[in-house]
Design brief:
Elements (H helix, E strand, L loop, with lengths): L2 H15 L1 E5 L5 E5 L4 E3 L2 H9 L30 H7 L3 E5 L3 H12 L4 E4 L4 H14 L3 H15 L9 E7 L4 E3 L4 H8 L3 E2 L7 E3 L2 H7 L3 E6 L24 E6 H4 L5 H13 L2
Parallel strand pairs: 3-4, 4-5, 6-8, 6-10, 10-11
Antiparallel strand pairs: 1-2, 6-7, 7-9
Length: 277
């Protein structure tokens, strides 16, 4: 048999042999074969793939994902076009766990034989686990372990306690804030403070009265698609009763603080700087 044929045959067999079992956030064991065409249905997954040196594996993006602007968009992460995804014939789809609609989308894609990993991203621990699972799925678990080790080492440098109670505004009016089940709470703790909103939900709707009763030391306002033009606190009717209106108010970028990917580590240190060392 010619040498070239032997080489190509061995290459083909090696490629076919790359299959791994990955357990996702639902407990499902997903078989991933040779993941070389990936569709991340949330921008944080693209960030993780970038950190793993695997951005070249991404073949499509969601509309809000600006990391790969030249790739085709498959809709929003809330409402992706499942037909477009199927047409792309991906080896792997990364789906954000936590919504019934997301699970329905996962079931639909799996019926077409497309492996889907539902991954949770509500905390730094979730980020570590999701990174390990993605690293396993693309055949580079060692890269994932190195990333996680470096991230954990970096977070260990942020240990100063400030004892400040913080409220993080996601959207106003109809005030929506980050709850305890949001990675924002980990960012706040990393900066030596605590989330004044103790509900375990990711997002919590508050009345003005409920907010004033919390009496936070720091009020953080995110700006971005969910809160594009926040009204200054001084111009909000009745908000003079909020002590922090004369205290510490910090404005931050939504895509850095609310996106539960590697950038959340940068958010920790930016918040520390915003609070003053």
């Amino acid at each position: 048999m010619p040498v070239l044929v032997v080489f190509l045959l061995s290459l083909f067999l090696c490629t076919e042999a790359f299959a791994v079992q990955v357990t996702d956030a639902t407990g499902a064991s997903v078989t991933v074969h040779n993941a070389r065409r990936i569709v991340p249905l949330y921008a944080a997954f693209t960030d993780i793939l970038d950190a793993l040196g695997a951005l070249d594996l991404v073949v499509a993006r969601t509309k809000a994902d600006r990391k790969c602007p030249n790739l085709p968009a498959v809709g929003t992460h809330m409402r992706p076009s499942l037909e477009r995804i199927v047409a792309l014939k991906p080896d792997l789809v990364l789906q954000l766990h936590g919504r019934a609609e997301a699970h329905d989308q996962t079931d639909f894609l799996r019926r077409f034989g497309i492996p889907v990993l539902e991954l949770e991203l509500s905390s730094f621990e979730d980020l570590w686990l999701a990174t390990r699972r993605i690293g396993q799925a693309i055949g580079h678990p060692e890269r994932a372990e190195l990333c996680v080790a470096n991230w954990q080492k970096r977070l260990a440098q942020s240990t100063e306690k400030r004892g400040l109670r913080v409220v993080y505004e996601v959207r106003y009016p109809n005030l929506l804030v980050a709850g305890g089940g949001n990675i924002v709470s980990d960012i706040i703790r990393c900066a030596g403070c605590e989330n004044a909103v103790t509900s375990p939900k990711k997002f919590v709707r508050l009345s003005d009265e409920a907010l004033f009763a919390l009496n936070p030391d720091v009020y953080i306002i995110q700006t971005g698609p969910m809160n594009p033009d926040p009204v200054p606190l001084s111009e909000r009717p009745g908000w003079g009763a909020l002590r922090v209106a004369q205290g510490k108010v910090i404005t931050v970028q939504e895509d850095l603080f609310s996106r539960p990917g590697p950038g959340a580590l940068d958010a920790c240190f930016l918040l520390r700087e915003g609070l003053g060392r």
